[in-house]
Design brief:
two-stranded antiparallel sheet
């Protein structure tokens, strides 16, 4: 579901929807929200099956996630809006903009990537890891590989514990949906983009699903496809930062949201000459 923050009631012109990543939650955006001006109306997505959200019933696809967001945007009265998506949320953001071109004014994509390989094999690897380690130890290992060293111990603990609290079947369903979209829809969806796009990239994921700093490993399928098929995109490299850019650099994310707001206002200003 999408929940409206207290900021929502104060502005009726510029709308932003925030979409969290895989095994993550809406709480990741709290630092960004607190730094946005009163001129921004915010919708915060809680994907089904995530903490504090409605349960996930059966299978899920990223197309269904996008439709879910649009339905909730309708409830909030967001005729058009900017989308900020992190990781899997960046994929959902692209799916939204590809299929609802008239609704999405701007994409802000935070550290997206592509899971390599076949979806069935990818999920089998994940299931095997969780079975061998147990979900808590798996979460510590998996999220520890996402370069969390710059975060406080409390924030690290919250990320890991939240992932460990997910139902295992929910983790599998979203991992399959994410990997399937990467294989079957990523390139075609990027080719359909028409809106402005800003990409903030701090890490890259290699063919062995190992996450590395973007400064030392700048090449990735994610960036290469966006460069080729959406060449107007603005790509910003965020150095010395792990996968959770919005937790490490909330002021940076707020800056780019406010920049999108400024561009929106300037486009709406009448010609006073």
């Amino acid at each position: 579901m999408v929940c409206s923050s207290p900021i929502s009631a104060r502005f009726k012109h510029f709308n932003v929807i925030l979409i969290h990543g895989w095994a993550c939650g809406w709480q990741d955006w709290s630092g960004v929200i607190s730094r946005l001006s009163d001129d921004v109306e915010i919708g915060v997505v809680k994907l089904p099956g995530s903490p504090d959200a409605v349960p996930l019933e059966g299978r899920i696809s990223l197309s269904e996630c996008a439709a879910h967001v649009i339905a909730q945007a309708d409830e909030l009265g967001f005729e058009s809006f900017t989308v900020v998506g992190h990781s899997m949320g960046a994929r959902i953001a692209i799916e939204l903009a590809a299929n609802w071109q008239g609704r999405i004014s701007h994409l802000l994509l935070l550290d997206g990537s592509n899971v390599p390989g076949d979806p069935d094999k990818a999920v089998a690897r994940l299931a095997n890891q969780i079975a061998q380690l147990g979900q808590q130890s798996w979460a510590e290992a998996a999220f520890g590989s996402m370069m969390l060293d710059n975060l406080s111990p409390d924030k690290k603990r919250n990320i890991v514990n939240r992932a460990a609290q997910y139902q295992a079947n929910v983790l599998m369903e979203y991992y399959y949906a994410m990997t399937e979209w990467d294989c079957d829809k990523f390139v075609a969806s990027v080719a359909q983009l028409k809106c402005s796009v800003t990409i903030l990239q701090s890490t890259s994921l290699d063919k062995n699903e190992i996450r590395r700093s973007i400064t030392s490993h700048p090449s990735s399928l994610w960036l290469d496809v966006l460069k080729d098929l959406a060449p107007w995109s603005s790509i910003k490299i965020v150095q010395n930062t792990g996968h959770f850019i919005m937790l490490e650099r909330p002021q940076l994310i707020a800056k780019y949201v406010e920049q999108a707001f400024s561009n929106h206002v300037n486009l709406k200003l009448p010609n006073l000459k």
